[in-house]
Specification:
The protein has about 250 residues and is an alpha+beta fold. Helices cover about 20% and strands about 35% of the residues.
Protein backbone atom coordinates (compact mmCIF):
# COMPACT_ATOMS: atom_id res chain seq x y z
CA UNK A 1 0.00 0.00 0.00
CA UNK A 2 1.53 3.30 -1.01
CA UNK A 3 1.96 6.27 1.31
CA UNK A 4 0.31 9.58 0.54
CA UNK A 5 1.68 13.04 1.35
CA UNK A 6 -1.10 15.34 2.48
CA UNK A 7 -1.01 19.14 2.71
CA UNK A 8 -2.30 20.70 5.92
CA UNK A 9 -3.77 24.18 5.49
CA UNK A 10 -4.89 26.66 8.09
CA UNK A 11 -6.05 30.25 8.23
CA UNK A 12 -4.57 31.53 11.47
CA UNK A 13 -6.41 32.01 14.72
CA UNK A 14 -9.81 33.66 14.75
CA UNK A 15 -9.62 37.39 15.38
CA UNK A 16 -13.08 38.34 16.61
CA UNK A 17 -15.25 36.72 13.93
CA UNK A 18 -12.78 36.91 11.07
CA UNK A 19 -10.14 34.30 10.31
CA UNK A 20 -7.77 36.57 8.37
CA UNK A 21 -5.55 38.94 10.30
CA UNK A 22 -5.05 42.55 9.25
CA UNK A 23 -1.71 44.27 8.71
CA UNK A 24 -0.75 47.42 10.60
CA UNK A 25 0.82 49.51 7.80
CA UNK A 26 -2.35 50.19 5.79
CA UNK A 27 -6.07 50.33 6.38
CA UNK A 28 -6.75 47.36 8.62
CA UNK A 29 -10.34 47.57 9.74
CA UNK A 30 -13.85 48.48 8.70
CA UNK A 31 -17.32 48.32 10.18
CA UNK A 32 -17.87 45.21 8.06
CA UNK A 33 -14.82 43.21 7.05
CA UNK A 34 -14.68 41.41 3.66
CA UNK A 35 -16.44 38.13 3.00
CA UNK A 36 -15.15 35.34 0.80
CA UNK A 37 -17.72 34.82 -1.98
CA UNK A 38 -20.57 32.35 -1.83
CA UNK A 39 -22.34 33.45 1.35
CA UNK A 40 -24.92 35.94 0.11
CA UNK A 41 -27.79 33.88 1.55
CA UNK A 42 -26.80 35.04 5.04
CA UNK A 43 -27.33 38.42 6.68
CA UNK A 44 -24.39 40.82 6.76
CA UNK A 45 -22.54 40.96 10.10
CA UNK A 46 -24.12 37.67 11.19
CA UNK A 47 -22.14 34.85 12.76
CA UNK A 48 -23.52 32.49 10.12
CA UNK A 49 -22.16 34.56 7.25
CA UNK A 50 -18.73 34.86 8.87
CA UNK A 51 -18.61 31.12 9.48
CA UNK A 52 -19.62 30.50 5.86
CA UNK A 53 -16.93 32.89 4.61
CA UNK A 54 -14.22 31.30 6.74
CA UNK A 55 -15.15 27.78 5.65
CA UNK A 56 -15.26 28.66 1.96
CA UNK A 57 -11.87 30.34 2.21
CA UNK A 58 -10.37 27.22 3.81
CA UNK A 59 -11.98 25.02 1.14
CA UNK A 60 -10.60 27.21 -1.63
CA UNK A 61 -7.08 26.92 -0.24
CA UNK A 62 -7.38 23.16 0.16
CA UNK A 63 -8.54 22.76 -3.44
CA UNK A 64 -6.07 25.12 -5.13
CA UNK A 65 -2.84 25.23 -3.14
CA UNK A 66 -0.04 23.19 -4.73
CA UNK A 67 2.74 21.74 -2.56
CA UNK A 68 5.93 22.45 -4.57
CA UNK A 69 7.95 19.39 -5.56
CA UNK A 70 11.17 21.07 -4.38
CA UNK A 71 9.72 21.54 -0.89
CA UNK A 72 8.51 17.95 -0.79
CA UNK A 73 11.92 16.61 -1.83
CA UNK A 74 13.60 18.68 0.88
CA UNK A 75 11.03 17.63 3.47
CA UNK A 76 10.33 21.33 3.95
CA UNK A 77 7.46 22.30 6.22
CA UNK A 78 6.34 25.57 7.78
CA UNK A 79 4.12 28.61 7.39
CA UNK A 80 4.20 31.23 4.67
CA UNK A 81 2.62 34.61 5.48
CA UNK A 82 1.12 36.53 2.59
CA UNK A 83 -0.33 40.05 2.65
CA UNK A 84 -2.95 41.12 0.13
CA UNK A 85 -5.55 43.79 -0.46
CA UNK A 86 -9.26 43.27 -0.94
CA UNK A 87 -10.07 46.36 -3.00
CA UNK A 88 -13.29 48.34 -2.87
CA UNK A 89 -14.53 46.41 -5.89
CA UNK A 90 -13.74 43.07 -4.18
CA UNK A 91 -10.72 42.26 -6.35
CA UNK A 92 -7.71 40.68 -4.65
CA UNK A 93 -4.57 42.64 -5.53
CA UNK A 94 -1.05 43.61 -4.44
CA UNK A 95 -0.28 40.22 -2.88
CA UNK A 96 3.18 40.10 -1.29
CA UNK A 97 5.14 37.56 0.72
CA UNK A 98 5.68 38.70 4.30
CA UNK A 99 7.57 35.61 5.44
CA UNK A 100 8.71 32.70 3.28
CA UNK A 101 10.10 29.25 4.09
CA UNK A 102 11.74 28.55 0.72
CA UNK A 103 11.36 25.58 -1.57
CA UNK A 104 8.90 27.45 -3.76
CA UNK A 105 6.27 27.59 -1.00
CA UNK A 106 6.10 31.39 -1.08
CA UNK A 107 5.40 31.41 -4.80
CA UNK A 108 2.78 28.67 -4.35
CA UNK A 109 1.04 30.71 -1.65
CA UNK A 110 1.06 33.80 -3.88
CA UNK A 111 -0.39 31.78 -6.74
CA UNK A 112 -3.38 30.67 -4.68
CA UNK A 113 -3.98 34.21 -3.40
CA UNK A 114 -3.88 35.65 -6.92
CA UNK A 115 -6.30 32.95 -8.11
CA UNK A 116 -8.97 33.98 -5.61
CA UNK A 117 -12.34 35.11 -6.96
CA UNK A 118 -13.79 38.55 -6.22
CA UNK A 119 -14.70 39.00 -2.54
CA UNK A 120 -17.55 40.97 -1.02
CA UNK A 121 -15.59 44.10 -0.05
CA UNK A 122 -15.28 45.67 3.38
CA UNK A 123 -17.71 48.49 4.16
CA UNK A 124 -17.67 51.64 6.27
CA UNK A 125 -20.82 53.71 6.65
CA UNK A 126 -22.35 51.62 3.87
CA UNK A 127 -19.55 52.44 1.41
CA UNK A 128 -17.20 49.80 -0.02
CA UNK A 129 -13.60 50.32 1.13
CA UNK A 130 -10.24 48.68 0.54
CA UNK A 131 -8.64 46.65 3.35
CA UNK A 132 -5.18 45.06 3.61
CA UNK A 133 -5.04 41.57 5.17
CA UNK A 134 -2.55 38.89 6.17
CA UNK A 135 -3.07 35.19 5.53
CA UNK A 136 -0.91 32.42 7.05
CA UNK A 137 -0.70 29.34 4.81
CA UNK A 138 0.79 26.21 6.36
CA UNK A 139 2.72 23.55 4.44
CA UNK A 140 3.30 20.14 6.03
CA UNK A 141 3.12 16.54 4.95
CA UNK A 142 2.65 13.26 6.68
CA UNK A 143 2.39 9.56 6.03
CA UNK A 144 -1.34 8.93 5.90
CA UNK A 145 -2.76 5.57 4.90
CA UNK A 146 -6.32 6.81 5.40
CA UNK A 147 -6.06 8.48 1.98
CA UNK A 148 -6.10 4.96 0.48
CA UNK A 149 -9.75 4.58 1.50
CA UNK A 150 -12.95 6.33 0.49
CA UNK A 151 -16.31 6.82 2.18
CA UNK A 152 -19.44 6.35 0.09
CA UNK A 153 -22.92 7.12 1.36
CA UNK A 154 -25.72 6.94 -1.16
CA UNK A 155 -25.22 9.38 -4.03
CA UNK A 156 -23.40 12.11 -2.11
CA UNK A 157 -20.66 13.74 -4.19
CA UNK A 158 -18.34 16.72 -3.88
CA UNK A 159 -18.01 18.78 -0.70
CA UNK A 160 -21.49 20.32 -0.43
CA UNK A 161 -24.75 18.75 0.68
CA UNK A 162 -28.35 19.71 1.34
CA UNK A 163 -30.09 18.54 4.48
CA UNK A 164 -32.73 16.75 2.40
CA UNK A 165 -29.92 14.70 0.81
CA UNK A 166 -28.71 13.62 4.24
CA UNK A 167 -32.24 12.70 5.28
CA UNK A 168 -32.79 10.69 2.10
CA UNK A 169 -29.77 8.51 2.96
CA UNK A 170 -30.96 7.50 6.43
CA UNK A 171 -31.77 3.95 5.34
CA UNK A 172 -28.57 3.55 3.32
CA UNK A 173 -25.38 2.02 4.69
CA UNK A 174 -22.17 4.01 4.94
CA UNK A 175 -19.49 2.11 3.02
CA UNK A 176 -15.70 2.30 3.10
CA UNK A 177 -13.81 0.97 0.10
CA UNK A 178 -10.10 0.55 -0.53
CA UNK A 179 -8.28 1.48 -3.73
CA UNK A 180 -9.32 -1.79 -5.37
CA UNK A 181 -12.98 -1.17 -4.61
CA UNK A 182 -13.14 -3.76 -1.85
CA UNK A 183 -15.57 -2.96 0.97
CA UNK A 184 -14.06 -2.79 4.46
CA UNK A 185 -16.12 -3.58 7.58
CA UNK A 186 -16.74 -0.73 10.01
CA UNK A 187 -15.67 -0.91 13.62
CA UNK A 188 -17.47 2.31 14.49
CA UNK A 189 -19.41 5.03 12.66
CA UNK A 190 -19.54 8.63 13.84
CA UNK A 191 -21.63 11.54 12.57
CA UNK A 192 -20.64 15.06 13.62
CA UNK A 193 -22.03 18.51 12.91
CA UNK A 194 -20.26 21.77 13.65
CA UNK A 195 -21.45 25.33 13.23
CA UNK A 196 -19.73 28.24 14.90
CA UNK A 197 -18.97 27.25 18.49
CA UNK A 198 -21.52 24.44 18.49
CA UNK A 199 -20.41 20.84 17.96
CA UNK A 200 -22.53 17.68 18.06
CA UNK A 201 -21.36 14.09 17.73
CA UNK A 202 -22.91 10.63 18.01
CA UNK A 203 -21.48 7.16 17.38
CA UNK A 204 -22.75 3.69 16.51
CA UNK A 205 -21.28 0.26 15.84
CA UNK A 206 -21.48 0.89 12.09
CA UNK A 207 -25.16 1.45 11.30
CA UNK A 208 -27.04 4.69 10.75
CA UNK A 209 -29.12 4.27 13.90
CA UNK A 210 -31.40 6.65 15.82
CA UNK A 211 -28.45 8.34 17.53
CA UNK A 212 -26.79 9.23 14.24
CA UNK A 213 -30.11 10.40 12.83
CA UNK A 214 -30.22 13.01 15.63
CA UNK A 215 -27.08 14.60 14.15
CA UNK A 216 -28.69 14.73 10.71
CA UNK A 217 -31.64 16.58 12.24
CA UNK A 218 -29.28 19.16 13.76
CA UNK A 219 -27.57 19.87 10.43
CA UNK A 220 -28.23 23.43 9.25
CA UNK A 221 -27.09 25.65 6.43
CA UNK A 222 -23.68 27.17 7.03
CA UNK A 223 -22.35 24.28 9.12
CA UNK A 224 -20.12 21.29 8.39
CA UNK A 225 -21.40 17.71 8.49
CA UNK A 226 -18.68 15.06 8.93
CA UNK A 227 -18.75 11.29 8.56
CA UNK A 228 -16.04 9.42 10.46
CA UNK A 229 -15.82 5.72 9.62
CA UNK A 230 -13.48 3.66 11.80
CA UNK A 231 -11.93 0.52 10.30
CA UNK A 232 -9.33 -1.98 11.44
CA UNK A 233 -6.09 -1.80 9.45
CA UNK A 234 -2.99 -3.83 10.28
CA UNK A 235 -4.22 -4.38 13.82
CA UNK A 236 -4.93 -0.69 14.49
CA UNK A 237 -8.03 1.48 14.36
CA UNK A 238 -7.99 3.96 11.49
CA UNK A 239 -10.34 6.91 11.02
CA UNK A 240 -11.57 7.67 7.51
CA UNK A 241 -13.25 11.08 7.30
CA UNK A 242 -15.39 12.92 4.81
CA UNK A 243 -16.88 16.39 5.39
CA UNK A 244 -19.59 18.36 3.62
CA UNK A 245 -20.62 22.00 3.79
CA UNK A 246 -24.37 22.14 4.41
CA UNK A 247 -25.77 24.59 1.87
CA UNK A 248 -29.52 24.30 2.43
Amino acid sequence: MHLVKTIFLFVGCLIGTFAVQAQSTERTSAEQMPYFPGCTDYADNSEEKRDCSNQRLVNFLAEHLVYPEAAQKEGLEGTVYVGFEVAADGQVQNAKIIRDIGGGCGAAALDVINAMPRWEPARDAGEAVSVRLNLPVGFAFRTDKSADFQINWGRLTGTEVRKEQLESNIKRAVLVRDQDGNERPLVELIFAFEKGRRYYEEASSGRVNASLQKIIKKAKKGGVFTIIAVIQEEGERMNIERSFNVID
